Amino acid sequence: MHASHFPLSIVRPFKQIIHPFIPNMATFLLLLFMFNSLANAQGNPPSPGYNPSSRVDTIAFNQAYKNLWGPQNQRLDQSSLTIWLDKSSGSGFKSIESYKSGYFGTDVKLHPGYTAGVITSFYLSNNEDHPGNHDEVDIEFLGRTPDKPYTLQTNVYIRGSGDGHIIGREEQFHLWFDPTEDFHHYAMLWTPKEIIFLVDDVPIRRYARKSDTTFPLRPMYVYGSIWDASSWATENGRYKVNYGYQPFVGRYTNFKLKGCAADSQQSCQPPSGSPATTGGLSHQQVAAMQWVQRNYKVYDYCSDPKRDHTQTPEC
């Protein structure tokens, strides 16, 4: 609601109360508008008007995924998967097939309380096929101290992140809800034109294919994991995993996967992330994404003055 749209029955009495401190109505309305804008910075994002997840069927975990490591720290209960980190091990899973494009999503519920140093993730990678020269698309939840919110980190690597020349493309967000209280849907849509990261069907980031050298083009598997990243996960490693709080638990359900497998025909097309079958985002989706970026984005690699931006020409 714009300040000028407030009912006069509210404006006039309030104006009388604060009149000794604010000399005129124009100043009052300006302050009221600023207060209203600040209030609207919180809460839920505007509706994106389209729900890509509803166009993709839920798939049973065993139909699409298998344990990768830490089987003793992984439990499948009907449609839900629980993985946990303790002093003995973390755990991870991997898709049975690799894909050259597609929609990859799952509902996740995060561990409450102290989780510093812990990474809970859902991501694409071809590291096993191209060690030291791999591509990767990440959704990572960076553990927290109890007085801080979780940080959702999105990242894109292209051809090499383990060869001593790590070039990450991180954008970090806080969330407009508590991700420990309930399950929320997190997804990556990877097409030949772009990568879109979504939270509860709201686009939070779009990474466009501006050149072949800055975009992942080789097939990737889908992974999820929970592991000890004490060296960097929380405030650049200031806070480590404290195993006095173990086990640290990540819960996954509602797996959605629809894509073009590595060996699929050239004519195979991934799902569209918008009402347009050609892909991209609608104006309403862009508005929702801009709202999230304006109010909840806390780091952008393109805006970091400490980065060498000759290495990230897409900026």
Characterize the biggest β-sheet.
8 strands, antiparallel
Number of helices: 4
The largest sheet has its strands arranged as: 1-4-13-6-7-8-9-15
C-alpha geometry: globular
Sheet-strand content, in percent, reads: 25-35%
Please provide the ordered H/E string of secondary-structure elements: HHHEEEEEEEEEEEEEEHE
Task: Name the poorly predicted regions.
Answer: 1-22, 28-40
Mean pLDDT: 88
Annotation, overall tally of beta strands: 15
Quaternary state of this entry equals single chain
Instruction: Determine the structural class based on helices, strands and strand pairing.
Output: alpha+beta
Helical content stands at: 10-25%
Taking the alpha carbons of the first and last residues, their distance comes to 35 Å
Cα-atom Rg, whole angstroms? 22 Å
Give a quick set of tags describing it.
single chain, 315 residues, alpha+beta, eight-stranded antiparallel beta sheet, 14% helix, 32% strand
How would you describe this protein?
With 315 residues, the chain is α+β, with helices and mostly antiparallel strands. β10 and β11 form a beta hairpin. Residues 1-22 and 28-40 have low confidence and may be disordered. Helices cover 14% and strands 32% of the residues. It has an 8-stranded antiparallel sheet. It has 4 helices and 15 strands.
